[in-house]
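Exercise 7. Predict the joint structure of the components listed below.
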Amino acid sequence: MFESFLNAFPLLFGGGSFLNILFVISLGLLIGLFVGALPGLTTLMAMAIVLPISFFMDPLVGIPFLIGVYKGGIFGGSIPAILVSLPGTGASVATTFDGPPLTKMGKGRKALETALFSSVIADFSSDIVTILLIGPIALIALLIGPPELAAILFLSILIISSTSSGSVGKNMIMLATGLFIAMIGQDPIAALSRFTFDVFELRAGVPLLPMLIGLFAIPEILINIETKTKDFIKTKLNLNKEENLTWNEFLKLRKTIFRSTIIGTTIGMIPGVGQVVAAFVGYAAAKNSSKNPEKFGKGELEGIAAPEAANNAVNGPTLVPLLTLGIPGDNVTAILLGAFVAHGLRPGPELMSEQGSIVFAILMCMLLANILFLILGYFTMPIFSKVVTIKKSYLIPLTIIFAFAGSFVFRHNPADLYFLLFFGIFGYVLKKLEFDVTPLVMAFILAPSLEYAFGQTLSLGDDNVIMFLLSERPIAALIIVSTPVITWKLWKRSKKLRDVATTITSEQVK
Amino acid sequence: MKFDKFSPNLLSGIISILFGIFIYYKIPTEVEKPVLIFGQSSSEIDPQIVPTIVALMFLIFGLYTAFYEKDTKISNSWPKVTKQILINISTTIICLILYSILFEYLGFVISSVILILSLGTFMGNVNFKYITVISILFPLSIFFLFVNVMHVFLPEFPFYEIRIGNFLIM
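Solution:
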């Protein structure tokens, strides 16, 4: 594994691709910042729409491009949250508590710089933790066989479904829906046709890309069209005239940033919980340990640093289960999984042993992205603060045609446009009825591997699978037996974390 | 029973139960049977196992949602859909369906110009000069990016070749 790590350096810095990588990461960061800064348009939507572009690049260029969009989008979301109290993404809701009061005091630039520095430090630290963790976990993952893999995949989708937002019953229905959609086409064991209803287009199964773009981008677009609001916001801002964050002010924030980094990194390791919860927990922890908790919500720099560091620290650790076991922890990593698969890299135990150097090179790109993020974010902050004023009647149609073009180019099949449309409308209805689509997407992505490993386990067990597991695969048996307990514990934990978020929000509303 | 007595969770539960039953009854006809080779099945496991498990999942989780979560306050309220929202959304969806059809026949650029102009005008608050310029420049740029830079296919302009069935007109 260490050899793979060392081999990542020539991959990254040799062969003349380094400048290309720097360019695409910067481009991704700028796209992410732009979309994130527009209230109502999310990072997830931006990633879903630009995903097809990454397919036509080298893996070491295309995947860092998406990582750039991701990182840029998370910070971009904080810009309108701080300046005009409109969170650009869910992860920046907690930032709206202290950002707008600081802007009113003429400290908008200071608040944005606090958000930027906290985000970069937390993200960089959590990426280093990810690089350190991924090797040992990958070595353990190499020891597992089909029964253990089936047990782990089953446990993962249950955890994701139970820890996602919303009611457990609805999440489980989404899980079953994802499994059903994945069943359409051919079974992965004997390639037998199933649930095609004699529709030719369904014979090869439901394509991943139009489904992802449909579920993540189209509902956001439709929600924006609902009200036809004329402008995102009418405001005049000039950040160049405002004062910067001082070194002393930054030093006072170091404890908060450190605490939130640990919180975010830990939450990132729990599948399905995500940045929104991390930001609220980070905020609550900062408020509870502050000597002046009454200042929170009235324009406290710590109130910016805490959620921003926490939500960005989630980014790295969510990649650990994805790269070592092929299990995406959230929707963003599900999109990254789509990019890996399209490049012929199937995340899982074999990926680390066979293409470990590429994985480490991609992880190093994340560190590079943080440095570029700091530079670009600092200098483009005043420009992106003006993005909040762009009219959505210009942007929405452009987003739609990008989504349609992106869905079409991968297979050149007009049927993919109808898949996109179907999943877009389906996603919109689900969003209105407060269903979380995360379990659906996760189940759809993991179902083929789960079914294949499950089939192999049944074959290995011959007539008596239970005896086979107990006598020859005790670890798999142990995982299966402990699945209800682990799921229950994590559900309780995520519920507690979400309660913290709800309490803080209601306190702020009061 | 009044409509408002059906909470979203109750309705979701009922739909899930019905869908589970539907899948279960469709398994014999919709799941292909493995070929027998020398009297032995070509598939090592019964291909109906997984679909049966999924059908049962719909049934069990549907029952759970319909009975235990029908009155829960979390994520269980009807969305506020006004007449205006309904008009906006239906118009957009119709535009998107037409766009999907025109995409293939008129090509990417022309169909996109029509979509941007019509949707932009429908959403309102646009300067007609700007939206016209954007509606032409943006699809052309995307077309150039995909076709000439990334070398992937997008349906071209319709006037390169016009066919009726398999017959090439132009």
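Discussion. The first strand of chain B starts at residue 36 and ends at 37.
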